[in-house]
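User: Hi! Is it possible to get a structure for several chains at once, not just one? Here's what I have:
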Amino acid sequence: MMISGNLLIGGSARRGNNGAFFGLDAATGEPLEGSFGGATIADLEDAAALAWQAFGIYRQTSLHLRSRFLSKIADEIAELGEDLISRCMAETGLPRARVESERARTVGQLRLFAAVVRDGSFLEARIDPGQPDRKPSPRPDLRLMKAPLGPVAVFGASNFPLAFSVAGGDTSSALAAGCPVIVKAHSAHPGTSELVGLAVRRAVQACDLPEGVFSLLYDSGNDISQALVAHPKICAVGFTGSRSGGKAFMKIAAARNQPIPVYAEMSSINPVILFPVALARRGAAIGRAFASSLTLGAGQFCTSPGLILAEQGNGLEEFIRGAKDALSGIPAATMLTDRIRKSYGAAVEQRAGRRGVELLAQGLPASGRAAQSVIFSTDARTFLAGVDLHDEIFGAASLVVRCTDQNELEKVVHSLEGQLTIAIHIDPEDHDSARKMLPALEGLAGRILVNGFGTGVEVAHAMVHGGPYPATSDGRSTSVGSLAIERFLRPICYQDTPDDLLPQVLRDRNPESVRRMENGIFV
Amino acid sequence: MMISGNLLIGGSARRGNNGAFFGLDAATGEPLEGSFGGATIADLEDAAALAWQAFGIYRQTSLHLRSRFLSKIADEIAELGEDLISRCMAETGLPRARVESERARTVGQLRLFAAVVRDGSFLEARIDPGQPDRKPSPRPDLRLMKAPLGPVAVFGASNFPLAFSVAGGDTSSALAAGCPVIVKAHSAHPGTSELVGLAVRRAVQACDLPEGVFSLLYDSGNDISQALVAHPKICAVGFTGSRSGGKAFMKIAAARNQPIPVYAEMSSINPVILFPVALARRGAAIGRAFASSLTLGAGQFCTSPGLILAEQGNGLEEFIRGAKDALSGIPAATMLTDRIRKSYGAAVEQRAGRRGVELLAQGLPASGRAAQSVIFSTDARTFLAGVDLHDEIFGAASLVVRCTDQNELEKVVHSLEGQLTIAIHIDPEDHDSARKMLPALEGLAGRILVNGFGTGVEVAHAMVHGGPYPATSDGRSTSVGSLAIERFLRPICYQDTPDDLLPQVLRDRNPESVRRMENGIFV
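Assistant: Yes, the chains can be modeled jointly so their relative placement is included. Here is the combined structure:
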């Protein structure tokens, strides 16, 4: 397939005239096919106007049609076949198996939302029938359902070129909710973005939906991204990326005439707490599993285990030995972009030279855009005193914090910021102390794992990929799993509204057979 | 009952030493029993520390106990009997029937949340059982439920001394969610607040809950209110009041180290759209009903009909005649505070003198803290050009906008800000044009009413009392009805967690028999 580098403004493709850039070959650093033109404000205005226009129609589509649309996007992405895989591998440096499994996840995610839409429970339809004879005053007929917020701006993520980019979790949940989407592609994989964007557009056309349901923009800098968040026709934002990027968007969104929700998944060090009995019995094995989770995808996961907490002792030394052994055999892996590789290198160098921090273990040496994995250690006192040690290093770097006792470990736990995940490693004899710590962990993270690591986020109904600020901008939400649809909905109540003016879902005969609450009971 | 004027910091009552104020008799302006001492920062710190301490325990209470607690608060408020009614009438100037019905609403609201808690569906429990044999990788066991955010700051509202104050909608939904509450009482009804606060405290004690579950503070200025929103142990805010107050809290909350959600219900003019056939057939009757809704509670409702939109013609003249006739017989009613009365007077005077605005009708003359109701009119062109005409006048003042045709009326609709309610008056022949307008109305308001007015907000499962900014700070929420509990919850996922470490609701045998989604199906 040819890569054009064009913007997709609804149904039309046009060249952006605001600067240009290329997708780069991860192996060679050379430009790949296609020069991508950055969008101008005029392009953004056109996309926003089309999205707004489409919203009036798209929000009223039947659940059946909207579900079919999501499935069709999945089909179209699957149809891209080897073209998508090879372009994505070239741009990101990710190995084939990872890109293929990410495609499977992306397609599966779209199909999951297709099922969620077909089911209709997400609308939370509720009916309190009128009671005209109630004393002292009659009760009106009240019917509630959740409705889409409006056009959503989605920012592609560098580390998930498929699953959190053009047709990833944010886009699929926003489309499922009934919101048109304008995607700002990540500049690290523009060719991948174009291929997927064209697939979405084919699905829009095949389902005879208004063209403005989907647009794809490139930004040669940050101006268009910021203008997109500030645009009056944009009603919500989905973003996965750096803390500084997320915070900038939060600020823009809060300063608008009409503030809008920003769902930014920003940064997390995903603490792993090793309890004494588990550590004593299985220290080395946990260490090996840790090294494997840490280096997965060159550590470029939001859920990468960046912090290990344990009481000092033989168990911890066994853990370190296990991790060290495993790490020493793990090859350096290519990082997503040159910039990410450089940031990683600089952060690792800084930490290596930091007072109170010791180098524990390293992976195999690296060259070019690849990066050497690394484990540091420090003591709890140093960690508690140093806010810089709480910062995420994006990549395969982790920090072991040695605590003198349980009390000190708890102090460290209470010093932590909001996280996406916290893992605990326990044996049955550890359950009592784990139970005492759980309320604190529940306050800190969106997902609590037992005897595992946070990498490998399952797309499921019960998944939470979110967590208290600053892990995300809004700890009330998840960006992965079917509950992600909640982010793009708001409730509307219809009072005493004649049946023929109600949305289908709230009509007496419930033509789409959606689960509804009636008088407080689900029927 | 004696009124002490003391702060309630958990289980202890103490005098606030940061200035003092009195409840004032609405009829005479004289101080009522009790001098209320404003809280100091130290008082706030104590209340916040107790709330935080209580949170660890309260969040883990069984649904049964939490439900019993809410019912007990309802019982204790009912037990206050005539003491509560007479103090509330004296402080607010509201008539007995209104105060009694508001008490009934408040007690009913607490009982509704008791039922919601007992039912447990609000927890949205979800289980995706593990699939250890899945290829290529096993699926972990995932269990999700919603958990409380943490201590909530609630600000009492002037216009609902019971239903949206100390134990009103915000407090009851936050307590139902599992969040301790710190209430800042509204200074317009401090004695009412103390009585209700003591009732809540008795319920805390009777249910053997940690004292920090509830505290009640007074603020002699705004400093403590602002410090409360900024306090690191406060995790969410519930507020009903002015737009300037709500916006100030939004700003403070967004600027915190850890931003928190603010649920502020701020201002709305609740447009009423009169369609041609209904107007032609029933103009006078709709006008009379309008006058009655406008003057209910001296117009001091968030949902008071402040704007009438219609095409000019005989029907509209009939409507105006009906409204004028009705209004001319309606006595002036006492407003909630002297300050509110003065603001109302000033706003009405300003509007009366505004170019392009005409005085249409008035209620009976007023004196003292009472206020004369008033209806103005203007033409659509003036309304479209004047942002000041979109502002709420808190009280029984409304504005009729005469439109030359349907097209101009639609322009006016599209110029509106976010609203709590929009009412349409239609006859069957109007349905087609109403249907065309509905998508715009859905984008503008949280509740759409047909052939009625927004006043008289039903506390029910299907109620939405919310709406796009600036009607509220967060259009994704409602502050009235059982869905209000959603505001104080966040999802947490437990992965591969042993049964004995899971919350009761997620354990295999589901001891509290809560509705759960398993593999995407509700069971």
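Chain B has two domains: 46-225+471-523, 271-450. The mean pLDDT of chain B is 97.

User: Great, thank you!
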